[in-house]
# Entry
Amino acid sequence: MFIAASLNTVMTELAQHYEKEHPEVKITYNADSSGTLLTQIEEGYECDIFFSAAQKQMDQLEADGLIVDGTRKNVVNNQVVLLTRKDSGTEVTGLEDLDKAKSIALAGGSVPVGKYTREALVSLGILPETEDVSKIRTEEVSKALGGVEISEQDNVSKVLIAVTEGSCEVGTTYYSDTYGYEDQVKVLQTVSYDLTGNVIYPICQVENKEADDAQKEAAAEFLEYVVSDEAKAIFESYYFDTQVE
# Structure
């Protein structure tokens, strides 16, 4: 199963619950940015289920003909937040005065949280309008913010590490990423959907030529569990919004 990095903690618990009830099933994860995972699937890496942090990567997988018909579903919504360490003493209060930061941890444009952050900065007029915000380079973001130092990260988990370890003053992650870090980080701003658009996480079963019938059936059954009411309660405990269509 290939999952967006921001799903790592909650999916670990979901797998434990499921494997307890289905001891014959072993669930293994590859957690990284959705863009990296998409590329790996396209290159032929074996994968039964793809759980993305954005629709863009799922749309591409569907265009590639790699989704099992009828299995694509929207599971949860998330929200981008601007974080800092509780003891950072930052002057930043939100994205509108992000130029006050001494250093920023920012995911690259191909990473969903990096794309959503760029979308918000465009909506605020800090970055110029463009057809595809994911192509806005980190250097361009830095220039728009007056030359502030930006450390580009490969996925949202690395952004969180950069902030909690203090190597960067602020960074953008998802609200769900703050789970378990409440004593370490302060949310400076919860970014409105008006600025980012919805942050929907879709899931699908992947066409896996290496899988036998039993493996395909097990994947289909676990996917159904992920979208069940029981799983929704677990997602909500990790700060995800399950009210999606």
